[in-house]
Specification:
8-stranded mixed β-sheet, about 270 residues, binds S-adenosylmethionine, Rossmann fold
Length: about 270
């Protein structure tokens, strides 16, 4: 088992809290804001990655729920924010069940507060590099029936694993254990092989010793033999984009060239067992 503390350490930065800061949350400390401010001030526009990622996650859970998925395992779930996975899924089906998993103790603390009144959700502290521990966890087993389809969510988390940690093996591990008709959703930092990507990767590696901006080929490689569903791997801002209230058709007809450089640096795809 990886060395894991249940105490929130305010002297060390945390990926979950930096991300919370970038999304406008309040669950962060000075040490997190220093890293967040680097992205805000030194890489202007980069915060668009966080919001594009969250919006795509909402659409992906919505799409899985429409496909009949009623249970989700959200790996590297992060701190509660607006429109969490269970809230989106339960709009479709009140009995939708979600197991949230994160290695950061702050997620457990805040997750329990948010989910205290919802007996169809749980949050556990675990490291996604140890999938057996998650799969066999009693709280996960209580909630998730692995003989029924599951939506396995890796939203903005596999880029926090270095290549030596073999993220593609983790995806395969889960998809070999869930029933056919399950889904896996991955969103991932996309390398533009440009200066922005180089600086951002340098900052994450320097702060956390992890953080990989992978090329499209590398991200597609994470899906292994799975069948990518329409539209395949695309920028999060383009993935099954739908008209919002007041949107005209023209606004929905968005192409890569309409996106900022930063919006082009996060991609996602939804896949199923072939
Ligand atoms: C960028 S946030 C993404 C949060 C959420 N999935 C989303 O897309 O909005 C990455 C999350 O992954 C968690 N994380 C990073 N490495 C992890 C690991 N090895 N095991 C479990 N969680 C991890 C972090 O603590 C953080 O909460």
């Amino acid at each position: 088992m990886a060395d894991r503390t249940t105490e929130v350490d305010q002297s060390q930065p945390s990926i979950a809290r930096v991300y919370d800061y970038l999304l406008g949350g309040k669950d962060n400390y000075a040490v997190d804001r220093e890293i967040g401010d680097f992205f805000i001030n030194d890489l202007p526009g980069s915060v668009a990655i966080a919001s594009a990622n969250r919006q795509a996650l909402v659409r992906a859970v919505d799409a899985m729920a429409r496909d009949g998925i009623r249970q989700f395992v959200d790996l590297g779930s992060g701190l509660p924010t607006a429109d969490n996975v269970h809230q989106v899924a339960q709009r479709h089906s009140a009995d939708a069940r979600v197991a949230y998993v994160d290695s950061d103790p702050i997620v457990l603390a805040h997750g329990h507060a948010l989910l205290a009144t919802d007996d169809r959700t749980t949050v556990i502290q675990a490291d996604l590099r140890e999938p057996e521990e998650i799969y066999d966890h009693p709280e996960v087993r209580n909630l998730i029936d692995f003989d029924e389809p599951v939506g396995v969510v890796f939203s903005a988390v596999l880029h926090h694993l270095n290549d030596a940690e073999r993220p593609a093996d983790l995806v395969r591990w889960w998809m070999e254990r869930v029933s056919s008709d399950s889904r896996v959703y991955i969103s991932h930092f996309r390398s533009g092989e440009n200066e922005q990507t180089r600086l951002a990767e340098q900052k994450l590696q320097g702060s956390f010793g992890r953080g990989r901006w992978r090329t499209d080929e590398e991200v597609i490689g994470l899906f292994g033999d799975l069948e990518l569903l329409e539209p395949g791997l695309v920028h999060c801002s383009l993935w099954r984009r739908e008209p919002g209230p007041g949107d005209g058709d023209a606004e929905v007809d968005v192409h890569e060239g309409d996106l900022t450089v930063w919006e082009q640096l996060i991609s996602c795809a939804l896949a199923r067992n072939p």
